[in-house]
Design goal:
Elements (H helix, E strand, L loop, with lengths): L5 H9 L3 H24 L2 H22 L1 H14 L4 E2 L6 E2 H8 L1 H6 L8 H23 L4 H25 L3 H28 L12 E3 L4 E3 L7 H22 L4 H17 L3 H16 L5 H22 L3 H8 L2 H19 L10 H5 L6 E2 L2 E2 L7 H34 L3 H23 L6 H18 L10
Antiparallel strand pairs: 1-2, 3-4, 5-6
Helix pairs in contact: 1-4, 2-3, 3-5, 4-5, 4-9, 5-8, 7-8, 7-17, 8-19, 9-10, 9-11, 9-19, 10-11, 10-12, 10-18, 10-19, 12-13, 12-18, 15-17, 17-18, 17-19, 18-19
Length: 478
């Protein structure tokens, strides 16, 4: 489907052999029987049968879409995240679960066109290792068993599927650009929702399963866009910002106005989240995209200089805001996090192999000595993906997390060294910027247990991995 519009891709994806047509008709007959049974008999069994048949039909449908199913998910997932949640309290069905699990069919209906590089194989193995270790700890943690497993599926299993499907379909540079464009659409729509919510005063956090977070220190609501917590909103935007800058720069001058508008909207939304880590992550992404390219020294100086002017001008305006000043000058939350990290290490020392269990950090804090730093006591959240994993999963989960971190860096380093075309160099530096931004936020915030940023980040990393797996002649300068 390379080189054809998405609508043609949808059509081609739905064309089936006689065997598949027979399967489709058989599924339709079963669906009609199940619907009739549920109407006539009622009760749990017919409803369950109907659910399985409808789910199977949807699985089949998404699988036949192929690459178009991945494009669609990347573009609309940020908007649809809070709306499909059945039942509303503790949903068993969400849009991401339904669509991403159905994309597994894409792996069944297609075959990989080229062998994976050793860096891609190593990264895939490390991610799978982390997901399996996390799943084992989620299943063996007492207490909120279903909640732990659901969180593991959302934040571990589904992002792994996105990574695998992207590797399968991002076989050409053109497809990589299309996927980056789809992420740009999703990120821009998400930013518009967040900015509008800030202006009008509504918040979809409750609808997404969270709560509206009012920060008493700054006297403002932390906007969460379509997600349950503002941290997720901020990190998804950081990753989408990297994809947007890549799409804009690789397409060239005709897309500058549209891409710049999208990037500015995403940057504004990130600023409204009031996370200093998110601000730093966004800055890293912008500098990486505009400045880290050999042979473009004049553009680098111009881009960094322009960025400096914008930062100085923006700071001169924001310094008049009491909210901004509070975030810049407040060091108590940093001191509280340092105290929390000390308690996290104490918890790990007591449970070094398997930790205290997923989601049990706050409870485990009651069993260690209370810690304070510069007079500020620890908070009841790890405030670091690494500290949280070390305390809750012990070496069982922490070692594979370190392995994934190393594997991502290794893959991006190899891709950057091998890339010879300007398009590949640009993709390498943009994904590297997103990776550093993700790392910054993961070091200071507990981001690993959230699915949307994990899935978005692994999609972007998979683009680099797919390009690294390309044949050498596909990477020559054009």
């Amino acid at each position: 489907m390379s080189g054809v519009p998405v609508t043609q891709g949808l059509y081609r994806g739905m064309r089936m052999s006689p065997v598949w047509n027979g399967v489709a008709w058989a599924g339709l007959v079963i669906l009609c029987v199940a619907v009739g049974g549920s109407v006539v008999r009622g009760g749990l069994l017919p409803t369950a049968v109907l659910g399985m048949v409808v789910g199977g039909a949807f699985f089949f449908f998404v699988g036949r879409l192929g690459f178009a199913s991945l494009l669609f998910w990347a573009a609309v997932s940020p908007l649809l995240y809070p709306w499909l949640r059945v039942p509303s309290g503790r949903p068993l069905i969400t849009f991401d679960r339904l669509w991403i699990i159905s994309m597994v069919a894409c792996l069944l209906f297609t075959h990989r066109e080229r062998a994976a590089s050793k860096e891609t194989r190593f990264l895939t193995l490390c991610i799978a290792w982390l997901v399996v270790a996390w799943g084992v700890r989620a299943y063996t943690t007492s207490g909120s068993h279903l909640s732990n497993v659901a969180n593991w599926i959302d934040a571990g299993v589904l992002p792994l599927v996105v990574f695998a499907v992207t590797l399968r379909f991002a076989t050409t540079l053109e497809r990589c650009i299309k996927l980056a464009g789809a992420m740009a659409i999703g990120g821009t729509a998400l930013a518009v929702v967040g900015i509008a919510g800030r202006i009008v005063g509504y918040d979809l956090a409750i609808r997404a399963g969270g709560t509206v977070r009012f920060d008493h220190q700054v006297g403002a609501v932390r906007i969460a866009g379509t997600y349950p917590v503002p941290e997720v909103f901020a990190l998804v935007l950081v990753v989408c910002l990297a994809a947007t800058l890549y799409w804009t720069l690789v397409r060239g001058r005709p897309s500058y106005a549209l891409g710049a508008t999208a990037a500015v909207l995403q940057a504004i939304a990130i600023a409204f989240t009031l996370f200093r880590a998110a601000w730093l992550a966004a800055l890293i992404v912008v500098v990486a995209a505009l400045g880290i390219r050999p042979g473009r020294y004049a553009r680098t100086i111009l881009g960094v200089g322009l960025l400096g002017v914008l930062l100085i001008g923006g700071y001169s305006q924001l310094r008049q805001s009491s909210t901004f000043q509070e975030r810049i000058q407040n060091v108590q939350n940093i001191q509280g996090r340092l105290a929390t990290y000390k308690e996290g290490l104490q918890i790990f020392e007591q449970h070094p192999l398997a930790g205290v269990g997923t989601g049990q950090f706050a409870k485990a804090q009651l069993g260690v000595s209370t810690t304070s730093y510069a007079g500020v006591r620890a908070v009841t959240s790890p405030h670091s993906s690494y500290v949280g994993t070390l305390a809750e999963q012990g070496l069982l989960g922490f070692v594979p997390l370190l392995a994934v971190t190393f594997a991502v860096g290794r893959l991006l380093r190899s891709y950057r060294r091998r890339a010879s075309s300007s398009q590949d160099v640009l993709l390498a530096v943009c994904v590297a910027g997103a990776a550093l931004g993700y790392l910054v936020m993961s070091l200071t915030l507990t981001m690993l247990p959230y699915g949307p940023p994990n899935a978005a980040f692994l999609l972007l990393v998979a683009l680099a991995a797919a390009r690294l797996d390309a044949e050498p002649e596909e990477l020559v300068p054009t």
